[in-house]
Amino acid sequence: MLTACLAFAAVAALVTITPGVDTMLVVRTTVTGGNRTGLLASAGVVSGCLTWAVTGAAGLTALLAASRLAFDVLRVAGACYLLWLGVQALWRARRRAAVTGDDTPETRLSGLAAWRTGFVTNVLNPKVGVFYMSLLPQFVPDGAPMFGTSMVFAAIHAAEGLLWLAMVVGAAGAARRVLSRPSVRRRLQQVTGVAFIGFGLRLATDR
After folding, report:
1. Residue 4 lies in a domain
2. Crossing angle for the helix pair 126-139 and 146-174, nearest 10 degrees?
3. Domain total for the chain?
4. In Å, what is the CA distance from 54 to each residue of 6, 81, 190?
5. Is residue 28 part of a domain?
6. Cys-Cys crosslink for 55: which of 39, 60, 137, 148, Cβ 3.0 to 4.6 Å?
7. Is residue 15 included in any domain, yes or no?
8. What is the C-alpha to C-alpha distance for residues 148 and 18, in angstroms, rounded to an integer?
9. 70-129, pLDDT tens digit by residue?
């Protein structure tokens, strides 16, 4: 069991540190709202992953693999949400073009909103569910209980995710003084907006 946990931890770590929408979301949230808000967004991301892990261990995500319609409905919903985040970021950057202050209230997320954004971004991504359904069983030793072992693996992945995203928050927080300058923040909003739209389009067109 220890060998299986170590092997899964190594693979999951590689998946965790791969830059993607989660990293972009946490960086933007930290810069606009501070370290606490960034950590809450990170907690939302991990909560979404754990939700998929539990449903996957219970066999519910098998529906996504068996039903193309169910997968496509969730995929389109997730793509629309990412596109909305991207358009929202670009709109905020456009509105800030004539603003000279350090921040505007509309760019700040509450703690609950930050957590919700991280959570929804993951829950509406069917690829996360398929990832858990396809990867976890490969590491379960023969004779080990599927649900219990999958939960152990999910806890390992969650711990790695929290650690990595906390490091991302720390790095973004340390650079916040520079990144919070109006011109730099405007560029950051534009970059993240384009990235979210790109991720959304990729998810929408992925077959």
Report:
1. no
2. 120
3. 1
4. 20, 23, 35
5. yes
6. 60
7. no
8. 27
9. 677 777 887 888 888 888 778 777 765 544 444 444 456 678 889 999 999 888 887 777
Dihedral angle over CA of 200, 204, 206, 207, nearest 10:
160
Q: Which residue has the tokens 């810069």?
A: 31
The region, left, alpha or beta by phi > 0 then psi within -120 to 50, assigned to residue 143 is left
| CA angle at 114 for the pair 113 and 119, rounded to the nearest 5° | 95
- Alpha-carbon gap, residue 133 to 150, rounded angstroms: 10
Instruction: Locate 22 and state its tokens.
Output: 């989660």
Sign for the CA dihedral angle at 68, 139, 12, 46 comes to: positive
Cβ distance 172 to 30 under 8 Å? yes
Task: Give residue for tokens 């999958």.
Answer: 150
Q: Which residues of 132-167 are buried (b: 16+ CB within 10 A; e: fewer)?
A: bbebbeebbeeeeeeeebbbbbbebbbebbbebbbe
Does residue 94 sit within a domain?
yes
DSSP annotation of 142: T
Whether the CB-CB separation of 61 and 55 falls below 8 Å is answered with: yes
Angle between helices 182-205 and 68-95 (to 10 degrees): 160
Segments forming the whole domain that contains residue 37: 21-205
pTM: 0.76
